[in-house]
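Table S2 (continued). Query chain:
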Amino acid sequence: MKNYRNILLDVDGTLLDFAASEKMGIARVLEYYGFTAGEELLHRYHKINVAAWAAFERGEVTKERLVNQRFEDYFGQLGLQVDGEEAENLYRSFLDQSAILIDGAAELCKYLKDKGYGLYVVTNGTSTTQYKRLALSGLDIYMDDIFVSEDAGSQKPLKEYFDYCFARIPDADPKDMILLGDSLTSDIRGGLTAGIDTCWYNPAGTDGQGDIRPNYMIRHLEEFKKIV
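Corresponding output:
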């Protein structure tokens, strides 16, 4: 077992159940604009959102453009022209109130903090939303610092984002860090780019991607204790 000192933790899909929060928030936005929130409409939004965030990770679009354009595109497909910023603000107000813990997340964070690890959040997203959700979840008390892409001016998986994080972690050394996250393209690729070990949280047990190879893979958060 390697001796790690600092642990970087992704939020959405790793500590918090973003998929559940997203469904609730989009259902309310759909109802606001007069639609019934069925599974087909929820799935259609999810596809648009995933593609938009993938473009953001590649540096092809700003976050501000992403969050507004996705709603204009989405409702445009439904035959309704909406103000993207208005729809985003509505969605954000719902999302800010949702912090659904993934099974084992609170227990893992407490365990790691009690063990003396430095714990740092690394997350792409909107600063106010991520801070509010972490506070609502109760996980913020375990964190030494929280690094949100909006504050960093860059995002996972880009090296510039991790440079921002490392500059704010006392005596940062990539050799004694490990990143735990659920996204191969954001978390695992980012960790590889930054020169730190990675653990892929993969609850579905899906196949990986050939060029993105994590050091470890787990299906339950409890398993991470065996790694550190």
